[in-house]
Automatic annotation (TrEMBL):
InterPro entries documented for this protein: Aldolase_TIM (IPR013785), DapA-like (IPR002220)
UniProt record similarity statement: Belongs to the DapA family.
Transmembrane segments: none
CDD domains given in the database record: DHDPS-like
Organism for this UniProt entry: Thermoanaerobacter wiegelii Rt8.B1
Annotated GO MF terms: 4-hydroxy-tetrahydrodipicolinate synthase activity
Stated name of the protein: Dihydrodipicolinate synthetase
Key word Lyase present: yes
Alphabetic keyword roster: Lyase
SUPFAM superfamilies according to UniProt: Aldolase
Xref: Pfam families: DHDPS
Length: 353
């Protein structure tokens, strides 16, 4: 009897044990299947995210950007007026903003001021606007360190001016190494800023662009040179995620014709929608209308910032409902007769009553 009980007990134990093992095996199999399914989903997601990233870079850079001015009152930055400018520009057709560029007088700001400008713009801009910030310094190290400081403030792309203090040494080799080092260590994608007239004559070559365009963290160039913008467009290797933006109204339409995808235009600070309209007309195939509007804006630009630079852009802004305010020394404000001339130009174009 005891034997029978033991056999039954052992049998039950064996059955239960195998049943238990079977349950565990089934669970493990289910876990493995679920794991594999998740891995496949993750792989799909990664591909989709990569596709989205590729698409969003072009999308984020396509259109017109205002290179924001920094409003000074008694030589101090008026962050409140900067905020008001952004809030007004948010309702325009602009794709976004570039802060701490030439029009922002970035060379005249301390790092602390520059960071506060970026924070102000980032907090004030609408979510649909792309934000670029000038982070270029004369060394790769300083550029990387400053870019790291501002990367978490909502900046989409860093705009890095060509180093130029040692202008005669800025060969293709030096510039390629500089931008590669910055891009390797930048937490956000970078764009190249080429403006020889403000950079001691340093002009990055199409050959250098053809190499740098292949770097996954270098996504574009703002061309403010007097060179043919098509040379940069044609230098980009097929398939590279790298785009060209015009740096002035004078070459904006020409750039669109040759494959550029947008522009960073000082006029966009005071005539944002008219600047955007050029690209809209071009995209709609209304080339004659685009040409006519482009010629009109180029003439206005010549009479405004073509003569007075940043100070003149600020005056035009003051007339048209924005806060340009004064420049910071060593830039001098315009003289009264120069201000009146800009007022006359704007009135003559029906832009000011």
């Amino acid at each position: 009897m005891i034997f029978n009980v033991d056999c039954e007990t052992i049998g039950n134990f064996t059955i239960k044990r195998f049943a238990c093992f079977g349950t565990i095996f089934a669970l493990l199999l289910k876990v493995e299947v679920e794991y594999n399914r998740k891995q496949n989903e993750n792989n799909d997601c990664k591909l989709k995210k990569e596709d989205i990233t590729v698409m969003s870079i072009r999308e984020k850079l396509t259109g017109v950007f205002a290179p924001l001015v920094t409003p000074f009152v008694n030589q101090e930055i008026d962050y409140g007026k900067l905020k008001e400018n952004i809030q007004k520009l948010n309702s325009s057709k602009l794709k976004g903003y570039l802060c701490l560029g030439s029009n922002g007088e970035f060379r005249s700001l301390t790092d602390e001021e520059a960071i506060k400008v970026i924070k102000t713009v980032a907090k004030s801009k609408s979510k649909d606007k792309t934000l670029l910030a000038g982070t270029g310094r004369e060394s790769a190290w300083a550029t990387i360190e400053f870019t790291k400081k501002v990367a978490d403030f909502g900046v989409d792309f860093a705009s890095v001016l060509t180093p130029h203090y040692f202008a005669s040494k800025m060969t293709d080799e030096a510039l390629i190494k500089f931008y590669t080092e910055v891009a390797d260590k930048s937490p956000i994608p970078i764009t190249i800023y080429c403006i020889p007239r403000s950079a001691n004559g340093v002009l990055i070559s199409p050959r250098a662009i053809s190499i740098l365009a292949q770097h996954p963290n270098i996504v574009g160039i703002k061309d403010s040179s007097k060179e043919d913008i098509g040379n940069y467009v044609n230098a980009v290797p097929k398939g590279a995620e790298f785009y060209v933006l015009s740096g002035s109204i004078n070459k904006f339409l020409d750039g669109l014709k040759k494959g550029a995808i947008g522009g960073v235009l000082s006029m966009a600070n005071y005539l944002p929608d008219l600047c955007c309209e050029i690209q809209e007309l071009f995209n709609d195939g209304k080339y004659e209308e685009a040409e006519k509007l482009s010629n009109r804006l180029c003439k206005i630009n010549e009479k405004v910032s073509g003569n007075g630079g940043v100070a003149a852009v600020k005056v035009a802004m003051n007339f048209l409902g924005y806060y340009g305010m004064e420049p910071r020394l060593p830039l001098l404000p315009l003289k009264e007769d120069e201000i009146e001339e800009i007022k006359k130009v704007l009135k003559g174009e029906g832009l000011l009553s």
